[in-house]
Design brief:
With 565 residues, this protein is of the alpha/beta class. Helices cover 37% and strands 15% of the residues. A 6-stranded parallel β-sheet has the order 2-1-3-4-6-5, sandwiched between helices. A 6-stranded parallel β-sheet has the order 9-8-7-10-11-12, sandwiched between helices.
Length: 565
C-alpha cells in the first residue's frame, strides 16, 4: 500500500477531520492521497502562515488538535510564525511539512543545500515545538504520528512538526510491518490533601484573597469549573488578558484582567490583596510589571501550573508551587470550604471599581462594547495584535459560551483573520473578527478565501491610518518622531472598503452597520471604523512602576485613598 494513502486513514483515526495547507511539489503525494480519499476536508488559504494560523484558530475554538501541511523550503519556513504562536500559547497543532527525497538530502555534507527547496526545518523549529520529527524510515510512520498527537494534546499542549521526505510519502508499505507507539504513563496526579490542606490553610487566614485565572484554564478546557469555583467561594477574581473571557461579564466576582494594559481596578485589587491563588497563569512581565517586588507586595502567592518549567521563574521567594493538571486543581477545590466572610473585602473591591471604571473609557472602548451587545449569538471572537487587541480585552462584554481568540505570547500581527477562518470550521457558526489596519494588511489576501467559500465572518477594522501602539511609543519615548508608523512617514493604508468590493465582499462604515445589521450575517462583511490617527490605549503602565500606578496618573488623593482602604 502506498504510504501516503495509509497516512490519510491514520490521521483520520487520530481525529483529523479538517486540514489546512498549501500545495507544493514536496508534499504533493500526501495531498493527492487526501484528495482521492475524500474523507478529510482540505482548506487552502493563500499563504502558509495563514494556513498555520487557521489550524491554530481551529484548535483554540474547538478544543481539539489542529492539522496543517505545507511543502518544503519556503513553504515550511513560512509556518514558523504560526508554530511560535502555537508554542507560546499552548495550542495543539500537528504541522506536516514535505521534504526533498532522502536520496537528495545533503545529510552530513557541509554544503548549504544539495536539493532545490531543501531546508532543515526540524533543526529550525526544535526550540519552539514540543517535538520535531524527520521521518526517513517508512516503517516509523504509524509510531511517529500516534506519538505526535499524544505529545501535542497531553500535558501542557503545544505544536509538533513532522517532516516527510517525498520518497517516504510514496513508499510501498506493508501495514503489518509498521511500528506502533507505546504510550508511557507520565501522569502526575496529586493527593487531594496537597491542594485542599494548603489552600484551606491560607484561605482561613486571609482577609483579602484573590483568584487569578490564566490561559491554562482555557487550554485545558476548565472554564466552567473555574466559574463554579469563583461563584462558590465568593472570592474576587481577576485574569490574564488571554483569559479575560473565562468569567462572564455578569459574574459578580469578575474584576477584569491585570497587567500593563489591564483594568486599573484589577491592578489595585491585586496590589491590596493578601493572598493570590494563581491557576494556569505564567505571571510574565506583562502581568506583574518590570519589578517583581512591586507585585502584590503583601500577598502570599500559591501557583498551580501544569508545566514545572514555568515555575522556574519565581515571582516571590516564598511562593508555594504545585505542579499538576488543572482538572485536578478544580476537582480538589470542590472539597474546599471556608468559614471566612469576605463581604467587606468584596465591598472594597466594588468601591475601587466604581471609582476607577470610567477614567480610561475611550471612543474605541465604547465601539467594542456596542459591538459585543449586538453579538450575543456569536460564540467565537478573534482579535489581532495591537491596540484593537487591548480594546477588545478591556471592553468586550463576554456572555456564556463566548470565547475570544488572541495571539498572546508571540503577539503575531495578521493572526485574527486566518484564525477566524479556522475557528469557523470548528464551530460552523458565524463569528466576528477584530483587526487593526496594520495587522489586516498582513493577511488581507484571505479576503479571497472567505469570499470563495462564503465564510460568515464580520471583520471590524479599527482604522487609525497608523501603527497605533508603536506610534504611541514614539510619542512617549522618541519625542514624537513617527518613523514608519503614520501617513507620510513611511506607512500607508488603502481603502479597505474598495478592496473588499474588488474581492466581491460587502463592506460598510460603522455607522451603516449600526443602522442595518447584527453580527449573525450569513456572508462575509468588512466594517471600516475610521478613527483619529492619535488613538491611545489607556491605562498603560510605564516600565518599572507598580501595576496599579498606570498612565495617565490618577489624582494622588484618590490613589492614596484606594491604597489605604
Amino acid at each position: 500500500m502506498k504510504l501516503s494513502d495509509y497516512l490519510v486513514g491514520l490521521i483520520k483515526q487520530l481525529g483529523c477531520e479538517d486540514i489546512f495547507g498549501y500545495q507544493g511539489g514536496m508534499i504533493s503525494h500526501f495531498v493527492d492521497s487526501i484528495g482521492r480519499d475524500g474523507k478529510i476536508r482540505i482548506h487552502t488559504l493563500l499563504n502558509e502562515q495563514s494556513c498555520g494560523f487557521a489550524a491554530c484558530g481551529y484548535a483554540q475554538a474547538g478544543n481539539k488538535v489542529g492539522w496543517v501541511f505545507t511543502s518544503s523550503g519556503p513553504g515550511a519556513t513560512n509556518l514558523l510564525t504560526a508554530i511560535c504562536h502555537a508554542y507560546y500559547d499552548s495550542v495543539p497543532v500537528v504541522f506536516i511539512t514535505g521534504q526533498v527525497n532522502t536520496t537528495e538530502a545533503k545529510g552530513k555534507l557541509n554544503v548549504r543545500q544539495k536539493a532545490f527547496q531543501e531546508t532543515d526545518i526540524v533543526s529550525a523549529v526544535e526550540n519552539v515545538t514540543k517535538r520535531a520529527y524527520y521521518v526517513c524510515n517508512p516503517l516509523d510512520i504509524k509510531r511517529v504520528f500516534e506519538e505526535a498527537v499524544s505529545v501535542a494534546s497531553e500535558g501542557r499542549k503545544g505544536p509538533v512538526l513532522i517532516d516527510l521526505p517525498m520518497d517516504v510519502q510514496r513508499a510501498d508499505i506493508c501495514i503489518s510491518d509498521l511500528r506502533s507507539y507505546t504510550k508511557l504513563d507520565v501522569s502526575n496526579k496529586k493527593n487531594s490533601d496537597d491542594i485542599v490542606n494548603i489552600v484551606s490553610y491560607y484561605l482561613q487566614r486571609s482577609n483579602k484573597p484573590v483568584i487569578l485565572l490564566g490561559n491554562g484554564v482555557k487550554t485545558e478546557g476548565q472554564q466552567a469549573k473555574a466559574r463554579e469555583l469563583v461563584n462558590r467561594l465568593g472570592i474576587p477574581a481577576v485574569s490574564s488578558m488571554l483569559a479575560c473571557d473565562v468569567l462572564q461579564n455578569e459574574c459578580p466576582y469578575n474584576y477584569g484582567f491585570v497587567g500593563a494594559y489591564g483594568h486599573r481596578w484589577a491592578n489595585f485589587i491585586l496590589a491590596k490583596c493578601d493572598l493570590i491563588i494563581s491557576i494556569g497563569s505564567r505571571l510574565d512581565v506583562r502581568q506583574i510589571g518590570g519589578k517583581k517586588e512591586n507585585f502584590a507586595p503583601n500577598a502570599k502567592l500559591i501557583r498551580f501550573d501544569i508545566d514545572e518549567d514555568e515555575l522556574e521563574n519565581r515571582i516571590k521567594t516564598d511562593e508555594i508551587q504545585i505542579v499538576c493538571e488543572l482538572s485536578q486543581v478544580f476537582e480538589y477545590m470542590d472539597l474546599i470550604t471556608t468559614s471566612r466572610d469576605y463581604t467587606d473585602w468584596v465591598s472594597k473591591c466594588e468601591y475601587i471599581r466604581y471609582k476607577l471604571c470610567d477614567l480610561d473609557y475611550t471612543v474605541q472602548n465604547n465601539i467594542i462594547s456596542r459591538i459585543s451587545a449586538s453579538c450575543s449569538d456569536v460564540d467565537i471572537i478573534s482579535a489581532d495584535v495591537g491596540q484593537n487587541q487591548v480594546w477588545v480585552a478591556q471592553s468586550f462584554k463576554v456572555r456564556e459560551g463566548q470565547t475570544i481568540l488572541f495571539s498572546g505570547g508571540h503577539g503575531s500581527m495578521g493572526f485574527s483573520l486566518p484564525a477566524a477562518i479556522g475557528a469557523y470550521y470548528a464551530v460552523r457558526k458565524p463569528l466576528i473578527c477584530f483587526c487593526g489596519d496594520g495587522g489586516l494588511q498582513m493577511t488581507i489576501q484571505e479576503f479571497q478565501y472567505i469570499k470563495a467559500f462564503k465564510i460568515p465572518i464580520t471583520i471590524f477594522v479599527f482604522n487609525n491610518h497608523s501603527l497605533g501602539m508603536i506610534r504611541h511609543f514614539q510619542e512617549m519615548y522618541f519625542e514624537g518622531r513617527y518613523i514608519q508608523t503614520t501617513n507620510n512617514n513611511g506607512y500607508s493604508v488603502p481603502d479597505f472598503k474598495a478592496i473588499a468590493k474588488a474581492y466581491g465582499i460587502r463592506s460598510m462604515d460603522i455607522e451603516e452597520y449600526w443602522n442595518s445589521l447584527g453580527c449573525s450575517s450569513d456572508e462575509p462583511i468588512v466594517v471600516n471604523i475610521e478613527l483619529e490617527e492619535t488613538t491611545y490605549i489607556w491605562p498603560k503602565l510605564e516600565f518599572g512602576k507598580p501595576n496599579q500606578d498606570q498612565e495617565p496618573l490618577i489624582d494622588r488623593i484618590l490613589y492614596n485613598e484606594l491604597m489605604e482602604l
